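tool_call: predict_structure(chain=1)
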Amino acid sequence: MSEQNERLQTEISLLESMYPEQIQYHETAREVAYRSDEATFTLRLPAEYLASALPDVLSATRGRLDLREDLKQRIKLCEIGEEVLDSIVLAFNELVEDRAASVASEATSGEKQNRASEVIDKATIVVWLHHLLNTNKRKQALSPAAAVSGITKPGYPGVLIYSGPSKAVHEQVNDLKQLNWAAFQVRLESEEEWTFAHGVGVKEVEAMKDVVAEIGEARKEVFMEAMRMK
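tool_result:
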């Protein structure tokens, strides 16, 4: 036993010299505490340590993250009967770095998903109306949520085009759909956001050629097919 204690004292002294500000050994409790800038662990050394047992993990944390089970798994890989405290410190620091990288990766992934969601969360809806003549309906058609842009064309047939945040676009179309129409048909739904020659907001134009001028040549074919004019 004296040889075992001598080995332990030598190991602790070496560990304290390697990590002078980070290692504390409580001899009575046979506990080794390690603290870095962002993580800490506490081990209990069984009486059989350095003979037939490995250290027990009392606590291991990085911030609010509990790393006890992870550290226990690392310790199980250590050689019984050998001085392993230095190896445990190195394994713990690697574990902390791995978790930090994992958290950073998850955060980056979350940001990418949010950005992707923002891109997907756009919509363009084209509506064909039998006619759009009523003054009140024309005013309502021109007054969607502030984030929505588009085109309205009164007369026979009537045309509504709204583009912007998906929720706001669908709400505008659904609100208008509740009004009394001779015919109200959604002819096109897209997850792409369209831009218009006049910029933001909703503009009323006089004729189909004006609608095409607003949406541009790139959208002309799609619009004409939606209006069934091809």
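agent: The beta strands are 23-26, 31-35, 39-44, 56-62, 65-66, 122-129, 149-153, 158-165, 184-190, 202-204. Proceeding to next step.
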